[in-house]
Amino acid sequence: MMAAVSTRPAERATGDLPRYDVGALRTAFPALHQAVHGQPLVYLDNGATTQKPRAVIDAVVSYYTTDCANVHRGAYLLSERATLRYDAARHRVAEFLHAATDQEIVFVRGATEAINLVAAGFARSRLQPGDEVLLSEMEHHSNIVPWQLACEATGAVIKVLPFDDQGVLELDRLDALLGPKTRIVAVTHVSNVLGTVNPVAEIVRRAHARGIPVLVDGAQAVPHLPVDVQALGCDYYVFSGHKVYGPTGIGVLYGTAEALQALPPYQGGGDMVRTVTFPKTTYAPIPSRFEAGTPDIAGAIGLKAALDFVATVGFDAIADHEHRLLALASHALAAIPEVRLVGTAPGKASVLAFTLGNVHPHDLATILDRQGVAIRAGHHCAQPVVKHYGVPAVARASFALYNTEAEVSFFADALVKAQEIFKR
Ligand code: PLP
Questions:
Q1: pLDDT digit string (tens) for 378-401?
Q2: How far is the centre of ligand 1, averaged over its atoms, from the C-alpha of 111 (Å)?
Q3: CA–CA distance from 89 to each of 86, 99, 266, 381 (Å)?
Q4: CATH topology of domain 22-46+314-423
Q5: Which of 68, 151, 234, 381 is catalytic?
Q6: Which of 354, 372, 393, 401 is most buried (CB neighbours < 10 A)?
Q7: Domain 57-311 sits in CATH 3.40.640.10
Q8: pLDDT (tens digit, 9 = 90+) per residue, 154-193?
Q9: pTM
Q10: Could you tell me the residue ranges of all domains in the chain?
């Protein structure tokens, strides 16, 4: 059932495919071709992190092998090369998000750090006692806790836009929640549990009509759909490299120039300053102002390679393939007695959360692991979402561009086998 291991580079594996050839694509991902517990790996935890194509691994290795120097500092060739590659990565991200300029791209550790940066900035410069921060009920903890910290520091309060049992945001309640004290709306583009793709452009439109800025958490969106931040109109957009086939430890905060300039510095240190004296420091312009200290240079270079890789495959093809897998999996799971699908919004992304009778999702994930199938179990750092469904935890399979129909069938069969084991 598995594609054969190949040493062909990713470019040749993906470049001139006449159709979506998942077998050829898989050859670009070394980690997929291994056995776990004596079984071929079926990796279905892509919502947590994705495997990395050879092109990303090679890009990171090549930085450390030939171009390893600090950026923006050395007047020598290696540093120039490192700086060029780092700047090229920023440009690639700007292109990927359709940002107006490279200056609107800040490199951070990931979506979590990006949200903390904005929330801390709001706490220091915008939020007053009684002000409101509007979140949705389907946020990842990364888009809840930083705002709670900001509210605790300032006396502001959190308001919550709920979702219905399908996992669709109740937009008819949005206008009533957007009040004169709302200072920001922070909402996920795609839910990491429900897979719902939220109508963020519409949310932005309504918030902006009242002069309220919007942060969009794109951590689960960027692997699945093309993002155009200018078309969305959002003020901030965040994502993590590792969920879109890039390295861990690198992520992005996009902000319009105006929205970034409105934030105070986040961390102090080298590279984010213009002048420093003991009484006073003046700060570098955006985006350097928010990149204190030596950045994750290799990570940025790897992220560029990941975005190049995704572009070579193409979002139309990725979405088409992943939706086919999702439909197949939803159908197969719905046929298994006692499976309850969690999140059935129309047009959802390839994230499939479910419960199986009274079986604890952790036990289920452990049994599936023995069959080589890696899925996620728990509250998925979105406790309000699982609470909505009255359960402590759910299981989740999430599909990526390299998963196959055979893997989906194997997963469904493994689930039936697991069910039999639990019934004994
Ligand atoms: N937002 C969403 C919707 C996520 O799914 C995740 C991670 O699962 C995050 C934010 C946090 O991402 P990271 O841990 O890479 O910062």
A1: 989 999 999 999 998 999 999 999
A2: 6
A3: 5, 13, 22, 29
A4: Aspartate Aminotransferase, domain 1 (3.90.1150)
A5: 381
A6: 401
A7: yes
A8: 999 999 999 999 999 999 999 999 999 999 999 999 999 9
A9: 0.95
A10: 22-46+314-423, 57-311
